[in-house]
Amino acid sequence: MIQRYSRKEMADIWSDENKFRIWLDIEILATEAQSVLGRVPVKSLKHIKKHAKFNTAKILRIEEKVKHDVIAFLTNVAEYTGMDSRFIHMGMTSSDVIDTALSVQMKQAGEMIHKGLISVNKSLSSIAKKYKYLTMIGRTHGVHAEPITLGLKFALWYDEMNRNIERWKRAVEVISVGQISGAVGTYEHISPKVEQYVCKKLGLKTTKISTQILQRDRHAEYMSALAIIASSIEKFTTEIRHLQKTETLELEEFFSSGQKGSSAMPHKKNPITCERLSGMARIFRGNAVAAFENIPLWHERDISHSSVERLIIPDSTILMDYMLYQFKKIIDTLVVNKENISRNLELTNGLVFSQTVLLRLIDKKMKREQAYKIVQTAAMKCWKEKKSFLKLLKADKEVTKYLNAKELEGLFDYRKSHKNVDYIFKRTGL
After folding, report:
1. pLDDT of residue 261
2. Which residues are catalytic?
3. With b meaning 16 or more CB within 10 Å and e meaning fewer, what string describes 297-330?
4. In b/e form, how buried is each residue of 337-367, taking b as 16+ CB within 10 angstroms?
5. What distance in Å separates the CA atoms of residue 417 and residue 30, rounded to the nearest whole number?
6. N or C: which terminus of the chain carries fewer CB neighbours within 10 A?
């Protein structure tokens, strides 16, 4: 049973409530570290830990006046902690909180996306195995080439998604760092030990060096990985769309009971979800470009990246969560039209065995140039006159000098395309 998609869990990561909760965690952990270093009285630390909290609506109202989110946050927290609030945010700058919290959110989102990727690949593994030996025509340049199996097509997708999983794990690891190093990254007013303490507690690594901010190549790598995943999904859904063309109709996106395909044409069954995902991939590539533009900031920081990231990072992770859900549903409910696959395989009257015949003639000591010319001549006649390629070859005296009728018939065997399927599957881990 496929559950209805809900984006709430991923969206909650990017809520003001979650962001401020992480900000408060960072501030309290930093105060704990400062207390260990003797800069904050133990009594004050206990008071802060007991009373520190925030009110999201109040913070947003304060921000409207002061035009600074972290100041608004600290002002609100101070309402609960009183005089001891002077020990909160001591020696820190806004980006120490904002960037470290953003890393936590991106890691949280990354872990959720990782689960989605694993789920998609389980579906691809299943369908690849199911159709492992279902022979179909392979196409190059959109033209019939040689037989493959449908299972190999899905195995290719499975292998590509495995690379996406590894790529994504690296991207999440790269962004899973924090920094609490002060206004220009020199730790002038705060010990590096505070940074180490806070990051360890948050499950982050500490960056080796920072300015006022974490460097944005990290965020760009994360966004690039998302764009590549989205582009892979677009590749897969585009293939399904091609194979759902009326003239082909080998695969179909599931069409549910009561679904309508067109306001004008009642007969229409369109691959609308595949088209939707193909379009969404363009958003990821655009967002990745915006992330690249955030890398070259002025000196030790400017704020030009901030407004961009407030949009592209939450939007992209929420959208990827949706894409993975929808793509898995497409694969799990995909309609495979075996009769049409078989029909299309025979569409060119055996021309797909032209290379097989060519190579056998070469094996029989015919010169390659001569063999190619003979096979191509028969092939072009087959194209033009719609005659059986096998019959044309049997009638060719130059061919029958080297291959008798029984030998020719033995070459026209689709099962030959299966001989290395097990080997390929094993290499992909299926």
Report:
1. 74
2. 141, 262
3. beeebeeebeebbeebbbebbbbbbbbbbbbbbb
4. beebbeebbeebbbbbbbebbbebbeeeebe
5. 64
6. N
- Residue for token digits 């992330």? 291
Of 18, 13, 31, which Cα lies nearest the Cα of 198? 31
What pLDDT is recorded for position 266?
Answer: 78
Per-residue H/E/C for the chain: CCCCCCCHHHHHHCCHHHHHHHHHHHHHHHHHHHHHCCCCCHHHHHHHHHHCCCCHHHHHHHHHHHCCHHHHHHHHHHHHHHHHHHHCCCCCCHHHHHHHHHHHHHHHHHHHHHHHHHHHHHHHHHHHHHCCCCEEEEEECCEEEEEEEHHHHHHHHHHHHHHHHHHHHHHHHHHCEECCCCCCCCCCCCCHHHHHHHHHHHCCEECCCCCCCCCCHHHHHHHHHHHHHHHHHHHHHHHHHHHCCCCCCCEECCCCCCCCCCCCCCCCCCCHHHHHHHHHHHHHHHHHHHHHHCCCCCCCCCCHHHHHHHHHHHHHHHHHHHHHHHHHHHHHCCEECHHHHHHHHCCCCCHHHHHHHHHHHHHCCCCHHHHHHHHHHHHHHHHHHCCCHHHHHHCCHHHHCCCCHHHHHHHCCHHHHHCCHHHHHHHHCC
Contact 111, 105 (CB under 8 A): no
In the chain, what are the domains?
13-87 (1.10.275.10), 94-185+208-344 (1.20.200.10), 351-411 (1.10.40.30)
Residue 125: per-residue pLDDT: 98
pLDDT of 245 reads 95
Strand partners, 136: 148
What is the pLDDT at residue 260?
Answer: 80
pTM, rounded to two decimals: 0.93
Q: Which amino acid belongs to residue 119?
A: S
- Tokens encoding 362: 């070469």
**Encoded tokens for 384:** 């033009």
Q: Which pLDDT score is estimated for 269?
A: 83
pLDDT tens digit sequence for 93-120: 999 999 999 999 999 999 999 999 999 9
Residues of the chain under the 50 pLDDT cut: 1-3
Q: What CA–CA distance (Å, rounded) separates 240 from 188? A: 58
Q: Evaluate whether 251 touches 336 at the Cβ level (below 8 Å).
A: yes
